[in-house]
Amino acid sequence: MAWFDEFLQWDELSTGIEIMYFKQNEIWTPDLVLKNSVQTIKELGGDFYYLSVTSDGLVRWLPFQVFESKCAMIDITFFPFDDQTCYITVHSWSFNKYEVNVTHFDDFPVNFYDFVENSVWSIVSTGSSASPESEVDSEVTFILHLRRKPLYYVMNLILPVVLLGVLNLLVFIIPADAGEKMSFAMTVFLSFAVFLSIISMQLPVNSDNTSLLGVYLVFQMILGVGTITISSLQLRLHHRNSEVGRFYRGIVKFERYLRCTKCKKFPRIKPVGEDNLDVVDWRAVSSAIDFVSLFTMLVFEIVAISVIMVKLIHSTRG
């Protein structure tokens, strides 16, 4: 920072002094603070800093400070492929614009001469802006456009969730007589609950917008509840001994239609005993429920993943 102080001018030719140094508490300095700090608000600089003053009264101040600021508007909709814009506002605490006018150079970016790359965020662009003429406050805002690095979250969150979605479909491939159908469905459901809690700890608390990844996990949990419900009903029907009703016969008919859509185009010779296919028992109903549920859940999975991918591609292009 630099400003002119008329009380600190001297004749360089008669004194032979080109520059002098003063400590911060020995001369006047603007009382600048970090406006959007998350810690105690304190004045910029310290007692051990030296300020350089030239003979024409130009004061140069290079304070060192570690800031802990906050981003007011966090949009986690496309987490972990999200961009965030954060603002660091330096504000004159005691003076207004008519007393101390804090301004900046035109289109002044943030310098990176001592920048250390972060493993979670990358800086896309920077900028700065002074307070508008309509405002009385004297402040300068530095703008940081951040982009999250998604590799860690893709490898540790997204891929396991997608693979669990595939395992959720395999519930309908396990035969009802195997005895592990319900335990497998419950294990997959609890795995989704664990990943939902992990993602909740990674994301900031925000009720204005919801992450698509969190919505996908909730959707997977809903499918998991549906899978458990269908499997419970299927196992109960599998061990029935009564006559099969019209509704369940319709499910078997629909399942056989799905299986034989292509093969109906070709004539074939009926093997011996094929007329018994018209006889529907509860084992056939159980198998039909498995096939129809697998087909339906697969359609839901493809639609959900397609919608999320389209939104992510649209957000990156925007």
Structural write-up:
There is one protein chain. The protein is an alpha+beta fold and 318 residues long. The protein starts with a strand and ends with a helix. A hairpin with a 3-residue loop joins strand 4 and strand 5. The relative contact order is 0.09. Helix 2 packs antiparallel against helix 3, helix 2 runs parallel beside helix 4 and helix 4 packs antiparallel against helix 6. The chain is built from 6 helices and 8 strands, in the order E-H-E-E-E-E-E-E-E-H-H-H-H-H. About 4% of the residues have low confidence. Helix content is 38%, strand content 17%. The radius of gyration is 34 Å and the shape is rod-shaped.
Short description:
This protein is of the alpha+beta class and 318 residues long. Helix 4 runs antiparallel to helix 6 and helix 5 packs across helix 6.
